[in-house]
Design brief:
Number of helices: 4
Number of strands: 2
Protein name: DNA-directed RNA polymerase
Low-confidence stretches: none
Strand order of the largest sheet: 1-2
Helix content: 40-55%
Shape: elongated
Distance between the termini: 30 Å
Organism: Onchocerca flexuosa
Number of domains: 2
Length: 156
């Protein structure tokens, strides 16, 4: 994760916002106090705000400090907007979820070279439903996913 901002991130505002939130989450994990985290920045997005805190951080202290230094430097150097970038319709431009509404964790179904993925088990169930109980809505969803991922063949 610390390499994120070393690789010439084009979406610096998004990186700043998410990494600043990451720091808040780390502090909340350390204190085991979820009230420290202000998730209002994610109002109106598909990012879950009420999640259980793990007992320990998944990053090292060195990674935390590196992120902290970058966030501090950016906040002092520039007048960067502290909000999420939105599309033309006012929606958060990055989608966190796949078909089931949760982040992809574990085995992923790749959609060509688009970089987009879905949870493999969820995708398998969706395709099975399409084959056995097909509806117009399922067809519409498949058309949307094909267009969104620039994939011509959607299968398992």
């Amino acid at each position: 994760m610390p390499n994120l901002f070393k690789q010439g991130v084009k979406k610096e505002r998004l990186a700043f916002t998410l990494l600043n939130h990451f720091l808040d989450l780390c502090d909340a994990i350390e204190d085991q106090d979820p009230s420290i985290v202000n998730g209002s920045i994610f109002d109106g997005t598909d990012i879950p705000q009420e999640v259980l805190l793990p007992e320990t951080k998944y990053t090292s202290d060195e990674e935390y400090e590196e992120v902290k230094e970058w966030v501090l430097a950016i906040s002092m150097e520039q007048s960067i907007e502290r909000n999420l970038p939105c599309d033309a319709n006012g929606n958060f431009e990055v989608s966190l979820v796949d078909a089931n509404g949760y982040p992809v964790r574990g085995s992923a179904k790749q959609f060509g070279s688009s970089g987009k993925v879905a949870d493999r088990d969820t995708w398998s169930r969706f395709i099975m439903a399409q084959k056995t109980k097909s509806t117009e809505n399922i067809g519409d969803v498949l058309q949307f996913i094909a267009k969104w991922t620039q994939t011509t063949s959607l299968s398992l």
